[in-house]
Each structure stands twice: as C-alpha cells, then as structure tokens.
Amino acid sequence: MLKTFRIGGIHPPENKLSAGKKIEQLALPDQVVIPLSQHLGAPTQAVVAKGDKVKVGTLIAKAGGFVSANVHASVSGTVAKIDTVVDASGYRKPALFIDVEGDEWEPSIDLSEELSAHIDSISAEDILRKISENGIVGMGGATFPTHVKLTPPSGMKAEILIVNGVECEPYLTADHALMLEKGKEILIGVRLLMKSIQVNKAIIAIENNKKDAIANLELLAREYEGIEVCPLQMKYPQGGEKQLIDAVISRQVPSGALPIATGAVVQNVATAFAVYEAVMKNKPLIERVVTVTGKCLTHPSNFKVRIGTSISLLIEAAGGLPEDTGKVIGGGPMMGKALVSTSVPITKGSSGVLLISRKESQRKESTSCIRCAKCTSVCSMGLEPFLLGTLAERGMFEEMEKELVMNCIECGSCNFTCPAHRPLLDYIRLGKSKVGAIIRNRKK
C-alpha cells in the first residue's frame, strides 16, 4: 500500500489540464519588473541605478542578511527606473524596471547544453556558496533561502534529504513537466544537495498520478547510490513540508519546531534543478517553469519564463484572457491568491497562474456553522478551524494563539469541506497576521 500522511487531508478534483504538455520557452518581453525581495527573510538592497546597463545574470540586488537571497537581472538591457510594483501579495513592493535590449548573458554562466555531472571535486562549502551567490530559494512557493535551509541550527544534524515532487495542488503541472524533461539535471541537483548537508540517502517523493515521472526518475536513479523514488497516495496537502515528512519517514514535526527536528531536510524538485544550474553552470535563478491553466483557457501550458515577466504575457501565450474570467489566481485554487491585476510580475515563487470563470469564482452564501466537525477531520495540522474562524471573527487573537493558529499551513482544506461555505481560511489568515504581530511585539 502506498504511503501518505496520517492526519486529515482531502481529495479535490485534480484538473491537471496541462499534464503532458512540453515546456515552452516564452518569448522575451520588452520590459521586466523584478521585485527586489522574492523570498522570506530580510529585504535586499539594490546595487544598480537608473541608466545602468545589465546582462542576464548580473547581480542587481544584494541579500540583506543571512536569511535573504540575491536577485539577478533576468534580461540584458538598461535599468529604466527603481520604483514600486503591486506583486502577487497585492501590496506595493520596491522593484527594478529593466528595458530589454537583446539577450546578452554574463560570460561566467555556462550556456552549453552539455550535462555537467562531475561533482566529486566540489566541496560542501562551495556548493552552499554557489547556492547563496546565485539567489536560490525554495521554488515550491515558500521561497525560503535555500542556503539557510541547508545550514541546520547548532546541535541539529540532517539524516535524510526528501525531494518534493508531489505537486498535489490541483491544476499545477510545472514540477511534473520538469521531472519529465530535466530528470538527469534534477538528480545531479539532488546529489549536490545531499553533499551539502552530508547525508547518504535521498528520497524523491512523487504522487502516484504522475506515473511517467515516477518511471523516468526511477530509471535514472539507478545510476546514483543512495537516491530512491517513493510513490505516494494522492492526498492534499501532501506537498506541505510537515505532511511530506510524515508520509515518507513516518515522523511528525513537533509543534513550534523546525522540520530538521525530525532529521529531514525537504527541497522541491524545481529547487534541485535550480541548484544544479547554480553550482554546475554558475547560473543564477533568473527563470522558472510556470503553469498557466484554467478550464476557460484555449491552451493550458507550461512555460519557461524569465523572472519579472508580466503575467499578462503568459495568459496571452496560452490563448488570451477569456471574456468570462472571474478571477486570475497566482498559484493553485487551494493555496493561491487572487491577483489584483494581470500586470503582476512572475517571481521566483510563481508556480502557476490559474484563470477561473465568473461562475466558478462566485462564493456561495455563507451560513451559520452547523458543528459538523468536517473542517476538524480534514485539518492536516490537527487544529479546529471552526473555532479559529470564530475567534478571528470576534477579534479574540490572544485566544487564537493559545489554540495554535500559527501551526496552520493555510492549505484551505477547511474551506473546501465546509458545508456552510464559511470563509474559514480568510478568517484564519487574518488571525495569523494579528497573532504574528503580537508575538513579534512581545519579543521586542
């Protein structure tokens, strides 16, 4: 029997409309808008100014601390201005506007198609340095700086690397496409990650609805000692770090603890590919694969796209914006957020763009909670979403902290299953932001 995590979970419709679609290279835009901070942690500081010439891979913003990540130019051209842009969060953030002029790359980047697999001479320190210099972050959506995650706190030691190829979010297929087309590079990236944290075992976890990806990586992994592929049952939110650790090695992360407490380090398959490019090709994280999808779209697709490209250009390449579009969502339908505009730029954490019709996007009228406990039964963190929602609605944020609201991973399973159509996730997100502020002020 296939493994899965033990607490909660749901089975939303897959709607993998772009599965099997090859990765297409999106044409260069006329201008890119690159947010200066595309990661969790300290903001970056711009190191270029208006009028400066940049090449693809030029450092344009330097990390603002250890928990931060460098940002590089994704195109060659001239810095038009430093201004603010509304990003996927809906807030204005500092960004660099670069007018595209040709496609000239930094000479230090290896642009050959030849596979680079000679990693024996590379030290763990060199791997971490390359990852840090090239601005690699978690590409499953969390965008935590990768070099930080590969540096466990004092007294903690990694025992195993878990590579996340689950992609359980409905509609999204970017990781699936990458595993089919870049399997060899991903496996070299896995070996580099293993070496960086000094472990001898890695497990690539993939849900069983991606049998072609499982078969491809199982075949390729035969050449690499210590790497195995683990098919998993299909259950959402299995791609969550804590849920994946439970599914793969049957260990649960204690409340308030880091995943390293279980001995596991988790990295996304797209991150493993980015690590390969950063270490073996000296290529910064300046592009990524993004799924553009929706039932109303003419051509749901997987695009390889430069960071800073407007989402409107991806939608245009996928057939254009349908007239009956109700919402454009950054990410998938469960954890993604509706965008205020299609001019929002693609960032390092952009895994998908989902278009849904007006009919699909209309919320059903909310009614009183009927105490059915369905939200509690599906919560993968063992919380009581109905209670957290009520506490947030009443502004009882101190009580929310006591009820462990900060453990919520915002997967949306409670919303999905609520027969009263209560906006539980909206209330919980509000509560988490308020409780987070209370905690920060307390520490000060």
Please tell me about this protein's structure.
This protein has four domains: 26-100, OB fold (Dihydrolipoamide Acetyltransferase, E2P); 124-280, Rossmann fold (3-Layer(aba) Sandwich); 287-361, Roll (Ubiquitin-like (UB roll)), CATH 3.10.20.600; 374-443, no CATH class. It contains 14 helices and 17 strands. It has helices at residues 124-133, 146-149, 174-181, 183-197, 211-221, 241-249, 269-280, 311-317, 358-361, 374-378, 385-393, 397-402, 413-417, 424-443, and strands spanning 23-25, 31-35, 45-46, 53-54, 59-62, 71-72, 77-86, 92-100, 160-164, 202-207, 227-232, 264-268, 287-293, 301-306, 325-330, 337-338, 352-357. The protein has a six-stranded mixed sheet with strand order 1-14-13-17-15-16. Helix 4 packs across helix 7. It is globular and about 65 Å long.
List the helices and strands and how they pair.
Elements: E1 23-25, E2 31-35, E3 45-46, E4 53-54, E5 59-62, E6 71-72, E7 77-86, E8 92-100, H1 124-133, H2 146-149, E9 160-164, H3 174-181, H4 183-197, E10 202-207, H5 211-221, E11 227-232, H6 241-249, E12 264-268, H7 269-280, E13 287-293, E14 301-306, H8 311-317, E15 325-330, E16 337-338, E17 352-357, H9 358-361, H10 374-378, H11 385-393, H12 397-402, H13 413-417, H14 424-443
Parallel strand pairs: 1-14, 9-10, 9-12, 10-11, 13-17
Antiparallel strand pairs: 2-8, 3-5, 4-7, 5-6, 7-8, 13-14, 15-16, 15-17
Helix pairs in contact: 1-4, 3-5, 4-7, 11-14
CATH structural fold name of the largest domain:
Rossmann fold
How widely separated are the two ends? 49 Å
Q: Any idea what the shape is?
A: globular
| Poorly predicted segments | none
Percentage of residues in strands: 15-25%
